[in-house]
Amino acid sequence: MSKELRALHCKELRVAKAEDGTRTISGVVTYNTPSLDLGGFTEILTPGCFAGSIAGDVLLLRDHIPTLLMGRTKSGTLTLSDSADGLHFTGKLPNTTAAADLAESIDRQDLDGVSFGFVCNDDDWVVTPDGNVIRNVIEAELLEISPCSFAAYPANTVSVRSCPQDMKAKLTVPAELRTAESASDDCTCQCQSCLDGDCANCSDDPCDCDGCTCNEYRCMVMKLRLANLM
User: Fold this and answer.
1) What is the dihedral of CA 176, 177, 180, 186, to 10 degrees?
2) Whose CA is closest to 43, among 130, 150, 163, 149?
């Protein structure tokens, strides 16, 4: 499975300043809210789909940039709480210029979008009576949460690999939204599965290849975690 990104207007995104001058940001990744059209289908996060991620090591980044690390669950500077309405997060910001800029942008309401990166472990695809295709994310590993300047869907962030074959004909996923696994002709990953033409089974493990695009972000994050650099 590869990493996917989703952007949304974050519920209750706000900044709080303590008496000692430290700042925290908080918000909610909402459940049961249909996404934008992802190319012929919409997506819904089912309640509790990220519940298992609370015990994992999740990063709080700015704009998905690993060097702009704002907090993480491992160090206790990012806390996650799962509830019926969504995944609540609170991050204690570091005393850095980048963090101060982030807090100021949120406080001024110039920035109100949050994007999150995840790996879907279980989903369910359904077709409604009016012909709409819906992907329900049942269980997923949350990798990071990123307040973002631009609420957009970056390239290679929408996976339709798990969509049943009889439903794929209904999808019109734009090329810029397809993962490498969904367009094997464009795949440049050098893992053995992809080299064998079996991109559907691209490895989740951190690979050593320099040309990996199927799992490029996930590989990078995992390598940094293993090296204790993040």
Assistant:
1) -30
2) 163
Name the region of 189 (left: φ>0; alpha: ψ -120 to 50; beta: rest): beta
23-30, strands of its sheet edge to edge:
11-17, 23-30, 86-92, 78-82
Q: Check: CB of residue 42 under 8 Å from CB of residue 134.
A: yes
For residue 35, give the nearest of 136, 104, 140 by alpha carbon: 136
Residue 229: is its pLDDT beyond 50? Answer: no
Extents of the domains making up the chain: 4-162, 179-230
67-78 pLDDT tens trace? 999 999 999 999
| Statement: the pTM of the whole predicted model exceeds 0.85 | no
